[in-house]
Amino acid sequence: MNTFLKDLKKYRWVLILLILVLLLVLIVPDTGKKAFSTIIETLIDMLLVIPPIYITFALLDVWVDRDTMIKYMGEGSEIKGTFFAFILGSIGVGPIYIAFPISNMLINKGVTLHNVYIFLGAWCTTKITLVLFECTSLGLKYMLIRLGFNIIGVILVAWLLDKTTTKKEKQAIIENSHLVV
Amino acid sequence: MFTIILYIIAIILLTVSFFANRSKTKQAVKSAFHSVVDSLPLFLCILIIMGTLLSILDNDLISQLIGRDSGVGGMAIAAVIGSVALMPSIVAFPMASSLLDAGAGYGQITMFLSTVMMVGVLTLPAEIKSLRLSTTIKRNLYFLVYCIISAFIIGAILS
Question: What's the complex ipTM?
Answer without folding.
Answer: 0.84
